[in-house]
Amino acid sequence: MKTIREIGGEPVGKRFRIECRATAGSVCRAGDGRYCIPIKLEDMSGGVTGYAVEGAYDGPSETTPSQLVSASLTVAQGESRPYIRITRLRPISDGAAAPARVLPASWCPVPELLDKLAQLVDSLGYFPLIRFLESFLDTDSLTKPFLAVPASADCHHVCPGGLLMHSLDCARRVRGFLATDDRISQETAIVAALLHDIGKIRILTPDGKYQRTALLMDHRVLTNEILSPFLNELDSYDDDVANQLRYIWSWQPARGGDPLVNLVTAVQAADIYSAKKDAAERMFSTRPAWQQRVTFRGRGPARHFWRRREFSRFRTCTAKTDR
């Protein structure tokens, strides 16, 4: 099945079917006098406006915003250029499409990250975790802010979309840490890393402002609450994996001692490294090349960063070979 990006440049007369999000506009008249409905179609690859033309369309005249649909399309010839004609449109239920692939690109300020998210979901092989993650991604009220908010207001991954950027980076690093572990343990940690900061959708807005919840709550205590419907469903498939996720998302170093679940160490190491690396790069980006140490003072305690000097004036010496 094609993505919206792939239908560009198809010849007139070409027909295809896609699963995507649809938002219908107001009825208007085409050049030949027939009524038509412009419908914006979107998936992770981009968006395009198609037209449902009177007498050649089988489907609803209205949609909810970003409604999940199956669309039959034809490349038709207009008065001056080809256009996408929608011949059939059918709403489809949650779970009937690959949810990561039908997330609208317009929801994500860094849309190229959506392909990485889809690849992560595709890489999973353990059905209970696939079901868990896809159920989350099917929930627009959670997924939309997850794609849009920054990871922090002033320290790391501060741009809109920074939370997804940081989360994918953590999941990638965890995959590397646990490359030799059994697959279920590895995939449990990957999902844990991907969603470890989901509480920030209740703390931050897409433009990096704090929500009222932040006055009382730390984002870490919100994770299990936000994900509880999906954890409850996961219990019916594999309650050990569900409980591991609960434990990873709730364990705090302040408790003392070592965590009972070793995956905690991998997830927290990935989180710390990803956050500090981005923060250091951001802080040093505005400093002269000779400066090695910088201190960041934000909402929390002061953070200190150091970097090695770049000896660009020195060249690597190569050993001379006998002639």
Q: What is the number of helical segments per DSSP (H or I, 4+ residues)?
A: 8
Overall number of structural domains: 2
SSE topology string: EEEEEEHHHHHHHHEE
Q: Would you tell me the structural class of the helices and strands?
A: alpha+beta
Strand content: 15-25%
Largest sheet: 6 strands, antiparallel
Low-confidence stretches: none
Radius of gyration equals: 24 Å
Average pLDDT rating = 90
DSSP, total strands: 8
Distance between the termini: 61 Å
Name the overall outline. globular
Helical residue percent band:
25-40%
Protein architecture, described:
The chain is globular, with a radius of gyration of 24 Å. It contains 8 helices and 8 strands, in the order ββββββααααααααββ. The mean pLDDT is 90. Strands 1, 2, 3, 4, 5 and 6 form a 6-stranded antiparallel β-sheet that branches. The protein has a two-stranded antiparallel sheet with strand order 7-8. It has helices at residues 112-123, 127-137, 140-148, 162-177, 183-194, 223-226, 228-250, 263-284, and strands spanning 15-24, 28-29, 35-43, 46-53, 67-77, 82-91, 293-296, 303-306. The N and C termini lie far apart (61 Å). With 323 residues, it is of the alpha+beta class. 34% of the residues lie in helices and 18% in strands. The protein has 2 domains: 13-91, Nucleic acid-binding proteins (OB fold (Dihydrolipoamide Acetyltransferase, E2P)); 99-287.
Describe how the helices and strands are arranged:
Elements: E1 15-24, E2 28-29, E3 35-43, E4 46-53, E5 67-77, E6 82-91, H1 112-123, H2 127-137, H3 140-148, H4 162-177, H5 183-194, H6 223-226, H7 228-250, H8 263-284, E7 293-296, E8 303-306
Antiparallel strand pairs: 1-3, 1-5, 2-3, 3-4, 5-6, 7-8
Helix pairs in contact: 2-7, 4-5, 4-8, 5-7, 5-8
